Amino acid sequence: MIERRGCDLSPVDTESEEGRLTLLSFVWAAQWLDRNLSSVVPGAATVVFHSIVAPYMSESSYKQLVDVLSRAGKAATKAAPLAWLRMEPGSAQADVRLTIWPEGEERIIATTSFHGRDIRWLVEGSGR
Fold first, then answer.
1. What is d(CA 101, CA 80) in angstroms, rounded to the nearest whole number?
2. In what order do the strands lie in the sheet with 105-112?
3. Contact yes or no for 30/68 (Cβ under 8 A)
4. Measured between alpha carbons, how far is 53 from 101 in angstroms, rounded to an integer?
5. pTM for this one?
6. Shortest CA distance to 82 belongs to which of 44, 29, 109?
7. What is the pLDDT along the chain (128 residues), one digit of tens a residue?
């Protein structure tokens, strides 16, 4: 006998439009990101954020994600900057990294546990 079991105190209703959108929000698609970063909006900063996604992506999918962000970064301007904020595994804990274009400067701004507790800010004026 083969079976599968699981429980969720608040399961997502896959029959509803909201439920389908919720589930889609959990899937990283470089094509979707490419479409949505294809034009800059003067006077607005665009922020792409994710946390603990990289370990679940194939190497080629992650490379595609980086390529999409790099292309979008080249199109960014001071009037329409692009920021890539991510919390991903570091050496002992998670690193919170920030890359801002048009300069393309990347830096680690904090370290934290994998669930976001015990944040150690590494830049001045960041929350404390």
1. 9
2. 46-51, 82-89, 94-101, 105-112, 120-121
3. yes
4. 21
5. 0.79
6. 44
7. 666 667 778 889 989 999 998 888 777 788 888 988 988 888 989 999 999 989 988 999 999 999 999 999 999 999 999 999 999 999 889 999 999 999 999 999 999 998 878 899 997 765 55
